[in-house]
């Protein structure tokens, strides 16, 4: 019953926000936008619109990554495919409106961004949330994913505000280098997820195997490829127009390096190729190139990709099972190996790649991100575990009206 | 034999058109375009090309929706996957050239549009046709989908001409508000499809269950996500450059609202989550926001999405089986619940959202669309039923060279 | 052991290149690009960036074709899905960096292209390589796909240099018409692949059936649709901004024509519909329109598509088995029917479509491409066969850690 109430609170919250002052602010913005359109009489405006218009396509590419990419990557759990996709739908549908409404409320900084930049920032938040969800995939009830989103977004926005918006004066504005989000998106999401997993994992879950099969692997590789294809747009989403092509090439080179080394390492470490390694660790190049995606040289991009792919594959093949026993947690999708370690590596790589980087700001930023993520994750996991547990993890049929 | 002749008429028709005066007009346009390229010497031209160039990407996004989105959404029928995809291929491949050729013929109005606008308009027609086909999916022979396309396109263009091109002076030009096609694309396609289904449904079809399974559900959810991701480009395809971002955000908010409410309603109404509800009703927000996608405020967009998702889920869970018995028809994909009712709701929502809307023109437009669609659908269904029936509905192996 | 060494040579080669003078050149380019950004103060620069920015999206569309399109089209082999996807990942990840590094080395011509043009050219090379790989799919060990890429790229670049870069003065610069790559991408890749297959095919392979099933067919049709959707961006990738829309419409009309005729011919020639014919021959229109995609009229585009689809379907249904016995080779994906013959047809169609074409240059170019491709393919196949053979073709579990 308590749960039922929780379920109904969310749409009511939406309705409330829709008619509240926050909604009204958004409406004013819309009115301003409409006025601007009428006033658009000179060429500079048109060129600005053309430039913003191009960002729109990067925003759509990121949306493809969120729903199709993350969603299908998580379909590798054989009997949990419908649930993984539905959860992805819900996580995106909660986090993007929540981010936009909170942003318009001005709680985290007052800097105004354009509509399209706001959309892209909300998608970044959704990406980070999906990473968090990957850590506990299959072990939440469906409505708990929604609750996870509601708990996650404010914490994410607080961290983003400190790192990039000069929040509380902790990290000097413009000093923390993380254009493509290795730290604020990937590492934050992964560490938050580990925090949730620590608070939540039960003994039963240790005894339940996570099964993949022939077809779930193909769906998972589909999701992986979609992430690979559109990753350049993720990293280049907010870089200046003139840097888009260079950024894209760097991202592609990093992903290529990671993909090749993943194949070599999975064969070397396991004797045979592991499809999950290919689907996941190949993407570590994209994670790690994030911080320096627009400033690295092509040669640096390849090397970052090779290193990231290698450490990610080692994480999946060697570290994961030990880490899980040591920390008493299950990380369903291995997000610590794909987003956690490679993300931190990417943030640190900036110290080598960027000349005259503010070392102290970069290290402070990384440290604070880890701290905020782990604390917020542990607290969120505790709250989630108070609201009940699934009977059987990793199966659709506990909640879906099917029996296969 | 009669059927064989029909099959061969279509490519001959193509060949005829290719060498006919209609083709020649198209060729002239091409020549003009080529001359324009040569003459392009000043910056205003370049900026126009840049703006048109951005429309191109929205056109490609719509194509992804047509083939991948609608195509795979319809793969939910377990044993009919190859057929659903092949039918989608054929419906798109017939309707786009047919629309372009008829448009160039000038039968429906003489207004000239740019090449890229023509392509987008033809894709809108194809979308509407795919909705119609969804109503009778699995119950046409493969070549009958082609015939359906040939019957559908002129009716669609007649309706479009009346609503948006001042055809016969029935609806004052510019007064009917339907930027993203809630009425002229979605409702028209759904009602046309209901008309076809009424004329065609047999008793045998009532006794044949439409089976889904584990894997067909995952494919269907893939199609659904592709539609969700690219829906902003569908609605924003023809809006002015400066309104693209605002339109996109509205569409995303409407889809988010519909997705969340669909989860809540499917759980509430059925006790368990229904994968088909998630795959379909989540998209009702995109259907309903169409008419006012560029003018609504974000708050209005969320509310429209919530309402649309709710009524669509109620349609699937409560109304469909009664409607089918009452009207003696099977609506295979439930297009009345996804495109019909939410489309009409979207068109009516414009009466609330748009200040100083021409109420009479809006209501006249909606009424005429319903009338034209149902009559043309009934007639088309009659014609289709004269050309023969499948032996067994919903199976690939009646027409494909396979036996699984 | 020998093989193990080979495997490790590749990443070392990457590392070497990354720190070598070639890498340094790339780095200089990056520095120049960064300086340009700073210097970008006037509007003409911005407009150039906007135009290049639009090319970026076509480059991403092509990447979707390479990984998702070609990758999933090849998943039709039932038990080889994970391998086909992994091979696609590796082929792309080797060929794009290799092309970019060799291009920056200046071995094949010294003409400088922009970063984004360089990326697109490298993707064209990857597409051609994937076509080659389709001919021997399932019969290489995983690391041999990497070796195939290393052997292929220099041969491809040599041919490209002769056809389009005035290499050795063999084909007059600008005289050879092949905007969308019917000859230099599709026919070259197919014929190279036939060459490899001739050198490699064993008797055992003739006795092993290539099995598809219900689900592998659906994945393959997914890949096919992705190729169809983004094909306009492939052909229009490097055409002037003002010709993009016209080119896109031509490609869509050609694909539509091919799709319809494929359905008619597969039914006519086989009695029933063959899913592989639909997935493959429908794309022949895109292959064949390549050479004249920006210059053909819409009517010509439809006719080219109809003819290409017809000959491709006849190839799959009638010619393939005879050709394989005659030439003692297995062409796993039938690339000769999809890319070989339709590609050559497209190159020849330019003789009819383009007024005042340099007939001799066009025929010389086609002839030289055939010659270079077959010789380089035969040699590469010989080299590959020296490095060992798989035990069982077309199965994942020889190399993957799974047993289904």
Description:
The structure is a homotrimer of 404-residue chains. The first copy, chain A, is mainly alpha-helical and 404 residues long. In chain A, 74% of the residues lie in helices and 0% in strands. Chain A contains 15 helices and no strands. The first copy, chain A, has helices at 2-19, 21-39, 43-73, 81-105, 115-135, 142-164, 182-200, 203-206, 214-235, 244-270, 275-281, 284-289, 298-327, 335-353, 359-386. In chain A, helix 6 (142-164) runs antiparallel to helix 15 (359-386). The longest helix of chain A is centred in the N-terminal third of the chain and has 31 residues, at 43-73. Chain A is globular, with a radius of gyration of 21 Å. Chain A starts with a helix and ends in an 18-residue tail after the last helix. Chains in contact: A-B, A-C, B-C. Chains A and B meet through helix 1, helix 2, helix 3, helix 4 and helix 5 of A and helix 3, helix 9, helix 10 and helix 13 of B.
